[in-house]
């Protein structure tokens, strides 16, 4: 970044190329059904889909479904964030805990946690507990791994200094390790965020009694294809927005940190 | 973008296990088997005390094993496993074929990076599964829609890690090669790509798991065959043993795929520490 502000050419150079690519993509999308590359009923052009987004937003069933999903998601993510961080930090600082938990994590990592939804429904019914648990399971793993790495790689000298100044071992954990591990945890949190949304949607597409995933699939079942595309677009935009908000929040909270989330 | 860097970061060298000879090998093998044994043990105990429900809800491991064997003999399990495996591998191959060139172009050519990076960043956090019903409309209920979701889930880690890895290649290596007369194409092939390989393979590992998750979830939501379908079908027909068998199978599949890839990666980048 040049001192004294970047010249206008730099700003244009950053915006124009991606804008052109987006326009080209939109044009291709618009042309495809018109040119017969795809069936217009299967792939409606943007001029049909974009207005339908408004229709979805104002659909009286969409709002409550969205709030339903949002509530469960928020609880699951909160539990995963707090529990996962605690567990990961513990693993990072205690070799014994790590030896026990690391194989479990390695085993769980490639397993699609969403697959466990059906088991959870079998054990706990279709209520909120099941849905929150699925989100917790899916979201915890990246947070635990990130917290583990963050806590494990804390500069030894910080720990020695704190102990030398008389800090008790337990206090070292929350006054030195936790803040030092925070950047890593927040990076992992960003990935966990997108995984949490995926897990939420997948579990609702599967158990279709409430939530935005159910709304989406019901549109498919009743053959309202335009609404399917519109809802998909809406959910995609929501995922993107949440990510932007997260990055902005982290940058605001961690002003002392130079890195990127 | 730090997520890309994180994805491309090579695995830190594991602390060397100094136990030598057959005792060391036995110890390491035991450590790998121990978690599986622990899970089986916990499962057995929970089933025995009916902790989560009766034998219908939580069948003990031996009942599931018996059912799995029956499914295997009848051909249902091999068929489902085969369908899922080939879709996962197809998704992974496609994602690599598209993602590695794309990521390399982004990492190596600033113009391409300027044009595509914002879009890739936009698309990365988008829940691709929201597009799955649309994919069903366009591609039907057969294999292509499952492969498409697998590709979508696998593509972004691969692109981001490849872009990060190729952009972080030591410039001095490139300069040396150029000053010795190597053409731009040869520099890419002989300097940049090999140097970026560790990071690319780390991203590919995440992509492989993504492909498995994408395919399996697609099969769960709506499919005519595959492990996900086997699971959901068992659920609908109140054949809970089928559900457990499918979950154990897909977990083992994920483990095997991931471990094989890690071993392959270690071979391919054996020259790295």
Structure commentary:
The complex is a heterodimer of chains A (261) and B (273). Chain A has 261 residues and is mostly helical. Chain A is built from ten helices and no strands. In chain A, helix 3 crosses helix 9. The two termini of chain A are 19 Å apart. The mean pLDDT of chain A is 83. Chains A and B meet through helix 1, helix 4, helix 5, helix 8 and helix 9 of A and helix 1, helix 2, helix 5, helix 6 and helix 9 of B.
Give the total of beta strands of chain B: 0
Shape of chain B: globular
Shape of chain A: globular
Taking the alpha carbons of the first and last residues of chain B, their distance comes to: 26 Å
**Helix proportion of residues of chain A, in percent?**
over 70%
**Largest interface: chains, residues each:** A-B, 54 and 60 residues
Cα radius of gyration of chain A in angstroms: 23 Å
Low-confidence stretches of chain B: 8-15
Content of β-strand of chain A: under 5%
Which consecutive residue ranges of chain A, at least 5 long each, have pLDDT under 50? none
Give the SSE order of chain A as H and E letters. HHHHHHHHHH
Q: Give the number of DSSP strands of chain A.
A: 0
What would the average pLDDT of chain B be, to the nearest integer?
A: 83
Distance between the termini of chain A: 19 Å
Structural class of chain A: mainly alpha
**Major sheet summary line of chain A:** none
Oligomeric assembly: heterodimer
Number of helices of chain B: 11
Short description:
The complex is a heterodimer of chains A (261) and B (273). Chain A is mainly alpha-helical. Chain A contains ten helices and no strands.
How would you summarize the topology of this molecule?
The complex is a heterodimer of chains A (261) and B (273).
Chain A: H1 8-35, H2 46-58, H3 62-93, H4 95-108, H5 116-124, H6 128-152, H7 156-164, H8 169-206, H9 212-221, H10 225-253
Chain B: H1 2-8, H2 21-48, H3 61-74, H4 76-108, H5 110-123, H6 132-139, H7 143-167, H8 171-179, H9 184-221, H10 227-236, H11 240-268
